[in-house]
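Q: What does the assembly look like in three dimensions?
Context provided by user:
Components: two
Sequences:
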Amino acid sequence: MDDLEKTVRVELGDRSYDILIGPGLIARAGAEIAGRLKGRRMAVITDEHVGARYLDALTASLAAEGISVFPLTLPAGERTKSFDPLIRCCDHVLEAKIERNDAVIALGGGVIGDLTGFAAGIVRRGTRFIQIPTSLLAQVDSSVGGKTGINSRHGKNLIGVFHQPDLVLADTDVLDTLPPREFRAGYAEVAKYGLIDKPDFFEWLEKSWRDVFAAGGPARIRAIAASCQAKADVVAQDEREAGLRALLNLGHTFGHALEAATGYDSARLVHGEGVSIGMVLAHQFSARMNLASPDLARRVEAHLRAVGLPVSMDEIPGGLPSAETLLEAIAQDKKVKGGKLTFILTRGLGQSFVADDVPPSEVLSFLREKLGG
Amino acid sequence: MDDLEKTVRVELGDRSYDILIGPGLIARAGAEIAGRLKGRRMAVITDEHVGARYLDALTASLAAEGISVFPLTLPAGERTKSFDPLIRCCDHVLEAKIERNDAVIALGGGVIGDLTGFAAGIVRRGTRFIQIPTSLLAQVDSSVGGKTGINSRHGKNLIGVFHQPDLVLADTDVLDTLPPREFRAGYAEVAKYGLIDKPDFFEWLEKSWRDVFAAGGPARIRAIAASCQAKADVVAQDEREAGLRALLNLGHTFGHALEAATGYDSARLVHGEGVSIGMVLAHQFSARMNLASPDLARRVEAHLRAVGLPVSMDEIPGGLPSAETLLEAIAQDKKVKGGKLTFILTRGLGQSFVADDVPPSEVLSFLREKLGG
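A: Here is the predicted structure of the complete assembly.
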């Protein structure tokens, strides 16, 4: 344990848990887990990329504490978030005879975390679950809040449960080997927490983002901890997404529509890039609705561009559908209430709010301008 | 609404719900549902036997309130509690575009209720769920408590979630057409509630069981309502089965072992019959351990025999495995703590308790006597 490590407590009553953030946590996973859980049988679910890098180290760390490890390695990629791999996970956990005090460990990015958490949530109607997120996006987003699930042919994340982990180990060393594009995409969610309701954090990011992007060092850990804390604060108030939690969708309504419009083709657009463009659009649209100043939109755009993220729709390679088609995707994604759309808009830096009365005609004109310009 | 109808409220905070018990509830389902839920799209999941009898009446009742019905009919039988039908249910609910204020309705016995509740629990991480249980067992057992799930090749009910219904409509008319053996099997669970902690109810059943078995009439409704209320009281105190809820397993530890020993062959033994024999064994074993009098065991045995339920292992056709094999099945079913077994035993009529320190050697001698005698 050193000064570089931070702990974020997610307060959810008897489902509260700690997120440990810092270097070397995979190597120390056995000790951290053995100190908290009585069980000595752990199923570890990973994918072939992450497993090749970290499974041996994790297994050794657990074995050193007398923990038996039952690994399952699945193909990497979004397709693994589906029923067949889910059934494999459930069977694996049952075969490993994981019982009440044991746990299921997810070692990987968002796909492995969402899938493994879902399996842990339904085996014996809820099995202990530990997350070791290995992407920046997974560390700052899916490690907080307990959303788990798989995709359906009807859409993404449509089948799942809320299942809180017992412990999250966010080893920041693993971020040093992430492809730069993937790190940037995760950073979009980091910036998002500032834009939702933490203006000081956003200002700090504007000054310090180079340190956050640099391998190792305390700035990166501080950024991740602040992000987890920001999300934890929201989730503690609204675990099941009745209201407030919708703020976490800042940039996601436009972003999801762009992801759908590009056929979820990661060569063209990954989730964080869609969120980056979506956050800029949300700020521009807020300006258009006279809610916030156009300067704020320009400021957000400038920061996201500085870190290397795309900030406008014309940066997406391959051409986009019409404004009408995008609006349709938005209306499908978010429920339409009495003909009005729900968006996360803003009244200033870090002053986001849920606007559930946005006229579709305004969105359409806005998108036409943006696509035409 | 008439004097014949009773309502049991299951108190679970913001997950509280009503169980309506009485005749004609399928015909009145549309009005009851439309009065409580705003949504006007309902997916109805049933099996081919129940669907053939009641789906048209239910659909007409819902349609009369302007509710669109999206039915899915699955094969009848325990095999339907598995992943493939679960995936069909999820797809069906998504195709029907069931949204936040709509609901998924289970029309059937325990299999359909458990499967449909599981699907409702995972589509969009939780969709509204209405149960219309059509067997006595489903009305008095699975309609209370929110346990949902499917079987795995590793055992029964190993995959699932807790998902409370929004409303339960227990139409007692449907019981009039149940095969007598199935009605009796459900009655074993009715008697169980008396034996757990309602001695007055058990005494009333001893006097009034003929009225409960007679088609129609208030005694049957009273028995079902008392059973639902008894289970609701336990579940309200222990929703996620941390302790007290284990009392509901009275008769089930021996019963499950007998079900496993007969290969879940319903021609030989159905669940309620296993519970009947199991409750007698639990009372006999309590007497053997000097916890309760042998007279009580004889009294319980006499009542269950009077209604036509099997009360001893030698009534099971086809021969049973050895005492050792049964003990192994018991040890697998219930977790062994430090070499001791957990059973629900009793100190008197309606004075059941969780005994977590039962020596396996005592159980073995007891089973040897019973199988030998």
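Follow-up: The mean pLDDT of chain B is 94.
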